[in-house]
Specification:
Immunoglobulin-like; 19 strands; disordered N terminus; five-stranded antiparallel beta sheet; 2 domains; five-stranded mixed beta sheet
Length: about 290
Amino acid sequence: MSWSWWDRCLPICDPRPIFCRPVICRPCRPWASWRYPTWVSLPIVVSGTWVDVPRVASKDRDLQLLAVRFVDAGHPEQKTGPRYRVWFRNNDDKKLRKDFNIMLLASNDRDPSSDVPQAGVEIDNIDAGAIRTVDIRLPFEASTLARDAKDRAVPFRFLHVLVDSHQDVDESFEENNGVVLARGDVLPVDPSSFSTDVTSGSPGSMINVAGEGFGPEPGEVIVHVNDLELQAEIYGWYDLGVHFKLPPLPVAVETQAEIVVVRGDGAVSNPVQVLIVPAKTPVTPPPVPGK
């Protein structure tokens, strides 16, 4: 990390491709509670989709929430809460230049309340018909908001997602601006591998793959080399990365291989390439001279 006098530091090396790196938005002001309308259902599935959703062209201002996905659970030692990704669209045929906010609220019930863990970002504009995406991380308190049958702290029960959360935009139709979902109904993002921490490795070496959407439970890591599919031994698994050992590989020369992460539910990530180099032949020590 680089040193900064401000409230954030920029990483020296971000493993994500440029098109996957987020645009940093300003945090929005705290939410003041208001009564929800009856929200319309999100398209296709319970937590929505942004793929091939027909746009109802509007001559008036109309923002629409399209989907929400779970990205990662945060980290208790770092006191960070869960992160979610939100897709929304401007159905207007004109660019919206007025500031508005996207907010997440973590709650144990479906009723609106401002006295709950919350986080949001401010959007300064959105083009006509454009779909935008933001990542929002809830505070750590959301991870311990509820209690289970044994009185242990567990995460919140319901996720409230609000587009134009502070009602800054005068819209013709506000029923498509939000949703309240049971936490377990929010689908995860698709698994995506960004890069490995090394560009080459020999059979038996340890490698880290950075990505997202790998899920909390271990799946599989498959190494494709020389028309073979070999399963790697997993040593660590997290939503955002996997630590594994390269399997014994029959290579005599440097060979390009592809690494694929398979999530526990069977969803498959994109492949990332790594160069497999032959293992060095151990040097046999000379015999001990006889007396």
